[in-house]
Design brief:
The complex is a heterodimer. Chain A is an alpha+beta fold. Chain A is 33% helix and 15% strand. Chain A has a five-stranded mixed beta sheet, covered by helices on one side. In chain A, a hairpin with a 2-residue loop joins strand 3 (48-51) and strand 4 (54-57). The termini of chain B are far apart. Chain B is globular and about 70 Å long. By secondary structure, chain B is of the alpha+beta class. Classes of the chains: A alpha+beta, B alpha+beta. The interface between A and B is large, with 56 and 59 residues.
Amino acid sequence: MNVTITINGEERAFSVEGHESLLSALRTELGLAGTKDACEQGECGSCTVIFDGESVCSCLVMAADADGSTVTTVEGLAPDGVLHRVQEAMLAEGAVQCGFCTPGFVVAGSHLLETNPHPTEPEIREALSGNICRCTGYGAILRAFEIVTREGS
Amino acid sequence: MTTRITSGVKGGIGTSVLRPDGEPKVIGNFAYASDLSSENMLWGATLRSPHAHARLTKLDTAPALAMAGVRAVVTQDDVPGEPLFGQEEQDQPVLCDGTARYWGEPVAVVAAEDEETARRAAAAILVEWEPVAPVDDPDRAADEGSTFREMKIRRGDEAAMGSVVVEGFYETATQDQAPLGPEAGFAIPDGEGGLDLYLTSQWIHVDHRQIIACLDMEPDQIRCHPAGIGGAFGSREDISLHIHVAMLSLATGRPVKMVYDRSESFVGHVKRHPSRMWYRHEADDEGNLVKVTARLVFDGGAYAHTSRAVLANAAFFTVGAYRCDNVVVDAIAAKTNNPPCGAMRGFGAVQTCFGSEMQMDRLAEALDMDPLDIRRRNALAPGDPLATSGQIIEGSLPTLAVIDAVEAIPLPDPLDDDDPRLLPGGTGLTSPASSVVRGVGYAVGVKNLAFSEGFDDFAEARVVMTTAGVEVHTAAMEVGQGLVTVCQQIARTILGTDQVAVVWDDTSQIGSAGSTSASRQTQMTGGAVHAASVGLRDRIITEHEGDELREDGVYRNGDRVATIAEICANGPVEYHERFRHPETFEPDENGQGDVHAGLVVAAHRAVVDVDPELGLVRVIRVDTAQDVGKALNPQAITGQLEGGIMQGVGLAVMEQLVVDRGVIKNPTFTDYLIPTFVDAPDVETRIIEEGDHWGPFGAKGIGESPTISSTPAIVAAISNAIGKDLTRVPVLPEDIIGNAALEVAPLS
C-alpha cells in the first residue's frame, strides 16, 4: 500500500508491505539506516524515532499506520552537519563505543530535552530506561546528559 | 631501540582523545554489517533444528525451491570442501549432517529476492525428525567420557592440610553476550569465481581459514573484510552465518545478505559456559592459604568452539590472585546437547573467580578475619609462583595496590529517602526504605593477557608515511572498544604527527592481527603499531641522516633536513611488523609451566540495598581499582570499566539463559534481562599504573577485568546484607528468601 510520511521535514510518498514495520520501511524502503534494528520487540530502543511528537520504538509501529504522520529519525537531528547538542555531548564524554544503541539514545535524549529541558538524574535514567546499551554501562551517557542539562539551564 | 616520545602531539598516548568513528556513529551513518546492501541483492534465511538432539530422517527442499523469488537452497550435501568447521577443533558440520546436536542448529539456508520470502521459504522446507533423548546434564556427560577437555593441576603436596577448612559448591548460569548488533554477513561475487565477504567477526583471518577450507577455495579467492561491528564480547569469535552466506552467493552468483533476528542471535552464537564448581580451601590459623582443592565442570554444549581454552583459563585461575603452594584441580569441559558455549568477556576466569572469591569470604568468616585482610595476606605479587601453574610472575601485578585503592574510595551515604526510584523494586513501590538492608562486598580478580599455552600469538600492522599523513593498516577488529583510537594515539606519539588514519585491510592485504579477545588488542595490535611506527621513524631518520622526526619532516640538530614531501619523493614509505608477545608453553601433565604471557588484576567493591522479605536487590555502587599498566586513553579505560562492570551486574543479579532439556526458553530481550539505565549502579574508578614487561608503553589490556570480580563483589555484598551464604549466580529473589546454600557435593 502507499503511504505519505513527513520524514525529517520532507514529505515522502512510498509503498510499503502490509506486514512491514515503520523501522523496516525506514531502513529498506527509504535507506535511512541510522535507525537500528536490534530486537524488533520494543525492548532495546535502538530503533527509537519521534513519531507525531512521541518517542517510540519504530519496530512497534506498522508502516501502514504511519500514513500521514510526522517522523524524525537520527538523520534529522544534524541536518546540515551541525551536531545536535546531545550528539556533541555523547561524543565528548565517550558515551559511544560500538555505537549501535547511539542513534536510539540520541533520538530519545533529544526528545527528553524537548519535553523536560532540565531533568534530574533519576528523570534522565527513567526517560532513557527503554534504551539498552551493552557497552558503556550508561555512566558516560549519564555524564553526557548531565552536561547538556547544565548547559541548557 | 628505546622509544622517544615526541612532544607537540595533541592526540598522543595518555590523552582522552575522541574516537574517529564517534561522529559517524552519533549521526547514524556508520555502516554496520547489517546496514550493507547493494543492487541485485538477495536475502538469506536459515532453517533450524527444533530439537536439541534428533536424527534428520527427511529433508526435501523442493517446496522451497518452487516458491516465487527463491533462488537457491543449500544443505550439507552442497558443501564443496571440508564438511566440518571449528576454530580449535573442526567438529561442527556447516549444516546439519543427519543429526541435530543442539536446539537451533542450522539445517538449510535459502536465498530469495526479499527477506520475507527467504524466511517463508526456509520454513517451507520439508523436514522430518526422529528425536533422541538429549544429554543435558554435564556431570552425566563427564561421567560417560563425553568431554572436550579434561585437565588436572597438581602442584605441591597433595597431603598438605590446613587447620581451617571451608567447602562450597557453586554454580554460574549461562550468560549471553547480547551485543546489540545482530550477526550479519554480506557476500559479493567478484566475477571471477571468488567472493568479498563483510562479516561480523572478532578475527577475520581465522574466519577466512575456516571458510576457504569448507568452500575448497584458494586463499586469494575469498577476501574477508572488517565490517562495522555492534559489540561482540566473545560472541563473534566463532563462525555463525559466515560459510552459509558465502555458499548462497556462490550458488546464485549474486550478492547475498544475511542478518539474524534477536531470537536467532540467541541461538546463533556461543555463550558463557554454565559451570558447577566444588571447592575446598584450607588455611592456617593466621589465614595463609595452605591448600586449594577444586573440581570444575563446565558445560561446553554440542560443539567444541573454544571450550578447551576456556576450561584452561578457568582452571589456571581456580585460586584467583592469591599465593598457595598446594593445589589440586580437576577440570572438565563436558560435551552435551545444550547450547554451544565459547568465549565471553572473562573467558573462564569469571566462573572460577566467583567460586574462589566466595570461598575467600567464607574462609575470612571462619577465621574471624576482615575479608580484605585475608586477601592482602595472600595477595599474589611479581616474583611469586601462580598457585596453579607454578609460573613465576613477571611484569607488574599490583594486587595489594588495587585492594588498597578500592577500599579507600569513600562509601556512599546511608539510604535516607523513600523515593522508590532509589529503592529495590524501583517504581513498583514494593520496598519502603525502612525494610531495606545495606551490604558491602569485595572481590579481587586476576586474568591472563593474550593467548596462552604455547599458541603462536601475533599481530601484524603496517604503518605508512604519505604526503597526506600517516596510515596505520591492520585487520584487527574494532568492535566498539576503541582500538582504533589507541592505534592512532600510539602512531601519533612515535611519529610526531596528529595526522594518523587507521585503514582496515582485508585478509588479502595484511596478515592476521589475531583475535579481538583475551584483552589482547591494545597490547598486540597496539604493540605491532608501536613497533612498526618506531621502525618507520628510524628508517626515515636514518635515510635522511637526521636525529628527529617531526610533523613537517626530518630534523638534524634542530634544523629541518627533509620535508614530508621529500621523504615521500619516491612514494609512500612504510614499515611492516609482525609482533609477538613473550613465548608461552603448553602445560605439562600436571598443569605446570609458563603458560601465560602476562597477568592483569582488579578489585571491586559493591554496595547493595536489599529487601530481604521480597528478595529484591538494588546494586547502588560498584567501585573498582584497575591495574592498567599504562593508561593510553583514560576516558576509554573508564568506558571499559563501567561497561564491563555492568555485564558483571547482569550475571550477578539477572542474566541467565534458561535452558530446559537443551531448549532455550528465553531467547528474547523480553525474557533475557539485561541491566538498563535504572539498574545501573554508580561506578567510581581508580586506575593503577605500573608498567608491564611488554606491550606498548607498558600498557595492559583491560577489557575483561571489570567483568571478572564485579560479579562476586555484588554477591558478597548481598550476602553481607542478609547474613547468608550465596552459592549461585545470578542471585534471584528465591535465593535471598529461601535457603540459598546448596548441599555440598561429596568428594570424588
